Every structure is written in structure tokens, then in C-alpha cells.
């Protein structure tokens, strides 16, 4: 008896529920009813992963082609504009050094023997060195009257990194045009000073150039030099396109008045790095920035010889990128993302879609990239890297994997 009553109650509940559903469905459009939804799902096409991967690959390739044709080709096909008037300006070279006795002995003479007949000086800021830097500079000063040494014996409080000694050197400089490099750098020729200052005209306040690394044997050296070339291809081409966003302290020039007018590094003193790229990011404009692309205007530095040393150096450099202007972060970020996913998408498109169409898209980008790299590497003195450019470009996928976390890491407080 109890069982039949329970079954009867359950049946009533089911009937009530169905009646409620009918009432609700009566207020809904026909397209929202359960039967029509099921029918629509049944007629929907199954997602084609092959087509999806190909269309994504084609879209990413199109973005990459834009960067190579609109930006990077400017370096590849760069021709300096002829000047109607050549003026030799007074120049102050500023170099900061901390415990760099061997580098000063090896590289500083290359700066001091520049073939530059106009007024110039070389200011070396010896920043609290405890090695033999002081004595090496004293000996060099006996031979070269243009050498001016500034000895720092106290650390600057609350200003970490290279900014304080560099600020002191700039304020000690006698001339308006400043030419900055590092103690571990040497000019590629005796025309470096002349080529750099020759880029100045009435509107120019900043001159960007290439700071390369010495060519040595081994895989690590090729990776270091390719990454350096790749970075230079970006900041030089962006500047040529009227969007300057950085320079490198190994080979950089700007006017002392620009530095003083913007209160030096005061706006970035809290950031250990950034004396070169962040300062330029804040003060460079389309009108006041010029580029020098000339084999005689290159400087060369000693590259790291261990993976650990290089990884630590690059991780420190990338901590400043998050402080760039939004426009620069967008352009750099879009290129970074598309380059990072380019080769994985290429593999998926070749495997899941018609390989002939996928290889055709791959070939278009490879062709343009090969031309841009070939011409740019010749101009920047890195021609030996061109036969390896495809493998080196593939390596950038792993490079981004390694260094992407550095974009959010707290900067270290050491500059040397």
C-alpha cells in the first residue's frame, strides 16, 4: 500500500515537472527549444584542426611579413642621406669603469688614438675600483693629453647601477656632444668618433649605432652575436621608421643639454638598469633621433664565455622592458608573440593541413627574411652568421622561453 502511494506521488511529480517545462518552453522562441538545440548541434560541422592551424599560421606569417617589410627592411636597404655641410663638432667621450684594469689597458688606447682633428676629450670615471685601474689610467694620461680621469671614492646612496658615475662623467664633460661607450668596448676603426658626430645637424640630439661583440669560435658566440644583431635590427629599424625606443650604452651619443634638460636619470634612478635604453625611451622622438649604420662606426665588446654569465647578463637587461612606453611594448610584444609561436604553428600546419600550401607560406617569409638578414648582416659586420640564420632564428623560440620570466623579475642592483 505504501509502495503504490509512493509510486503515485513520484508519477505526479514527474508530470508536474514536464508541465512546468512545457509552460517555460511556450514563452521561448522556437530556436531555443531542446529539440531545436539538439538538431542544431547535430548539423554543426566538426572543427577542422588542420584548417584552423593553417589559418593561424598564415595570419602569424602575415604579421611577421609586416615587421620584415615595414621595419627591418629599412636597415637592410639603408642609405645615408648626403650632407651639404660637414661640421666637426667638439666631442666628449664618456666611459665608466669599475675594476676594469685589463679592459682599460686593452681597449682605451683604441678610443684615444681616434683620427679626429677637432677638439675632443675622453672622460673616464673610475668608479670605486680596487684593482690597478687607477695606475693604468695614470700611465695613459702621460701619453694622451685628451684623457681626463674622474676618481670616485664613495658610493652614491639610493642610486644603484651605473647612473651615478655616468651622471658625474657627463657633468664633468666640457663639450655638448657626448659619445658613450664601455670599458670593455673598442671602436672598430679610427674613424668611429668622426662617423658618430657627423650624424648631428640642427635638430639632432640623439645618435644610435651598433654595439657588436667580437667574433670567436663556438656555438655560444654565434648565439650571442645573433641575439645582439637581432636586437639592433629592431631598435635601428624602429628609429628609422620614426619610432625610436632604445639605444645601447656600448655605442650611443646624445647632447649634454638634452641630458640636463631632462634632469638626467632622476626619473629612473630607482631602477638599477636603464641608463641607456630607458633614458632614450623617455627622451627620443622622431625629430631628434638619427641612426648611423657604418662599419667604421661600430664598437666591439668582449662577449661572455660561459652560458651562466650570458644568461645572467641578458636577464638583467630584460628587466627594463616593462618600463617602456605602451606603444613600444605593444609593437615589441606583438613581434615577440608571433615569432614565438611561428615555428610550432608551422609544424602543425604542415602536419595537419596540405603541406604544399603550408610550405608556400613558410617559403615567402623565409625568402624575405633571408634577403633582410643578408643585407643587414653585411652592413653590421655579421656576415658569417647568415648561412646559419634559419637555425639561429629557430633558436629564438627557446631563447624566449628562457628569458620571458625576466620581464617580470625585480632588477638586480649591480651594473658591472
List the helices and strands and how they pair.
Elements: H1 2-26, H2 34-43, H3 49-76, E1 91-97, H4 101-112, E2 120-127, H5 133-143, E3 147-152, H6 163-172, E4 177-182, E5 185-187, H7 192-197, E6 206-208, E7 211-213, H8 219-240, E8 252-255, H9 256-261, H10 277-283, E9 289-291, E10 299-301, H11 307-318, H12 326-352, H13 355-379, H14 389-403
Parallel strand pairs: 1-2, 1-4, 2-3, 6-9, 7-10
Antiparallel strand pairs: 4-8, 5-10, 6-8
Helix pairs in contact: 3-8, 3-12, 3-13, 4-5, 8-14, 12-13, 12-14
Primary descriptors:
alpha/beta, three-stranded mixed sheet, elongated, 416 residues
Major sheet attributes: 7 strands, mixed
Output the helix-strand order.
Answer: HHHEHEHEHEEHEEHEHHEEHHHH
Label the structural class. Answer: alpha/beta
Distance between the termini: 92 Å
Radius of gyration in whole Å, from Cα? Answer: 30 Å
Percent helix, as a range, is: 40-55%
Please list the strands of the largest sheet in the order they lie side by side.
Answer: 3-2-1-4-8-6-9
- Total number of beta strands: 10
- Please, what is the average pLDDT? 88
Number of helices: 14
Which overall shape is indicated by the principal axes computed on the Cα atoms? elongated
| Uncertain stretches | 1-7, 37-42
Strand content: 5-15%
